[in-house]
Specification:
5 helices; mainly alpha
Length: 175
């Protein structure tokens, strides 16, 4: 009997972890990606009509999308690893976020700690990734041929669209 209970609990945690990914990672990524892509494209259209737009602008804005997409792919790969190896982390976050703030007991507010090799480097990777996105945006706006709003928005649009795209195959039910 304990094996059945343990198996169902683990299956339930994996389903809760998938629900967390859908609600707290996939949905916001799709929405933010759409908003940023529309705003970035609108700023490129503004640049086309009001300023100078050439093949350098197209190449640089496409490069900004690709850089953002690569960083989004990297973060998604890490989150997929966490979902695969430590689903209890995402399941605990879902349980924590479904309760109202007033009804959360203080002792239950602790999330399970992730313990894997390289865990201490993850915050550094996040900071370096954000710095890279802001850095290529600033470089493209100051030295390149991309309007500053498009240079700021396009890498983030690529980041969020990549997150949404690469989660797609993981969460689809296999037949």
């Amino acid at each position: 009997m304990p094996k059945i209970i343990t198996a169902r609990r683990l299956e339930g945690e994996h389903e809760q972890a998938k629900e967390y990914v859908k609600a707290h990672i996939l949905f916001p990524s799709g929405l933010l990606g759409l908003i940023l892509m529309i705003a970035g494209t609108a700023s490129l259209v503004y640049q086309f009509f009001a300023l100078d737009y050439g093949w350098e602008t197209f190449v640089q804005s496409s490069g900004l999308l690709v850089v953002g997409g690569l960083l989004g792919w990297g973060q998604t790969r890490y989150h997929q690893y966490v979902l695969r190896e430590h689903p209890e982390c995402f399941a605990a976050r879902l349980r924590l976020f479904t309760r109202s703030r007033l009804r959360r007991p203080k002792k239950d507010a602790q999330l399970p700690a992730l313990a894997h090799r390289g865990r201490k480097l993850v915050p550094l990777a996040y900071v370096l990734g954000a710095a890279l996105l802001f850095g290529v945006s600033a470089l493209s706006a100051m030295v390149g041929r991309v309007y500053f709003m498009a240079a700021l928005l396009m890498p983030w649009a690529g980041f969020f669209w990549a997150k949404m795209f690469f989660w797609r195959g993981v969460l689809v039910a296999k037949k």
